[in-house]
Design a protein that fits this description.
Blueprint (H helix, E strand, L loop, with lengths): L2 H7 L7 H10 L1 H22 L4 E9 L10 H18 L2 H11 L5 H6 L1 E5 L5 E8 L2 H23 L4 E5 L12 H26 L6 H8 L11 H6 L11 H18 L2
Antiparallel strand pairs: 1-3, 1-4, 2-3
Helix pairs in contact: 3-8, 5-7
């Protein structure tokens, strides 16, 4: 029997799911260790390296009144449709550059605009202005100033009578980011995933034959005998007791040659 032909016929090797699960369970300690180590790095990085960012929020209500000081349904619909225009006016260069000049900030228009978030609460005429800054006091000051300057700018551009402040900017007590718990959990998940990925790749690329069952499984041959390892020889060489791989191909060829010789010598 040609061992090489047997290997060609068995190019497609089935992957035993239970064997993979058993391998992962065997190295569960390594997966847990990887998760804990990377999770600890995520905790340290988010707690002591990353800059804490605070967010302060204020809300304004824009309502166009008639001369008789009454509000009609058409006024409410119109103001709801124009709310998106008001939100865009808040982040204009005119408003933000005036705020930068007022506080003497060492910042550009684009830099401040990235730290200002303007949203329209759905189905309302309320506009929310959120400002982020490493300092909680500065975040509050900026939010109030942007609200004040934007209100005056909206009144001038849209010819409105007033822009009402629904909620003054708050002084944040807790940082909005980074989330230490989130970074820790993501680090643990990433660590466990990396270890599992390395173990799976190592398992799938390992095509060595380790047991007699592997011989029958991959080569389709029955194991006739097992060669024991002499521990005395290992101790003389000063090496540790470890199992050495057996050249199954050579052993199989030798056994086949002996069978052929025996058959050739028979009458």
């Amino acid at each position: 029997m040609d061992v090489n032909s047997t290997r060609v016929e068995n190019d497609e090797i089935e992957i035993d799911l239970m064997e993979i699960i058993g391998m992962l369970w065997h190295y569960a300690w390594m997966i847990v260790a990887g998760a804990l180590i990377v999770g600890a790095f995520g905790f340290i990085f988010s707690k002591f390296v990353m800059t804490e960012i605070y967010e302060s929020n204020t809300k304004i209500v824009i309502l166009n009144k008639q001369d008789n000081n009454t509000i009609t349904y058409s006024d409410m619909q119109l103001n709801t449709q124009l709310t998106k225009d008001y939100a865009q006016l808040i982040k204009t260069r005119h408003v933000l550059e005036q705020v930068i000049e007022t506080f003497g900030l060492d910042d550009t228009y684009e830099g401040l605009a990235d730290r200002v978030e303007v949203t329209n609460l759905s189905d309302t005429r309320i506009i929310s202005i959120t400002v982020s800054d490493p300092s909680p006091q500065m975040a509050q000051f900026l939010a109030n100033e942007i609200c004040s300057v934007a209100s005056a700018h909206i009144k001038d551009v849209m010819d409105l009578e007033a822009v009402n402040v629904a909620d003054e900017a708050n002084l944040p007590e807790e940082p909005a980011s980074p989330s230490v718990g989130k970074w820790t959990i993501l680090g643990m998940a990433a660590g466990a995933f990396l270890v599992v990925a390395v173990l799976l790749i190592r398992f799938l690329l390992d095509d060595t034959i380790k047991t007699s069952e592997d011989v029958e499984k991959f080569l389709g041959l029955s194991t006739l005998a097992l060669i024991p390892i002499r521990e005395e020889e290992i101790e003389k060489k000063g090496g540790k007791k470890r199992q050495r791989p057996v050249d199954v191909t050579r052993i199989t060829d030798e056994l086949e040659e002996e069978d052929e010789d025996e058959e050739g010598g028979r009458p």
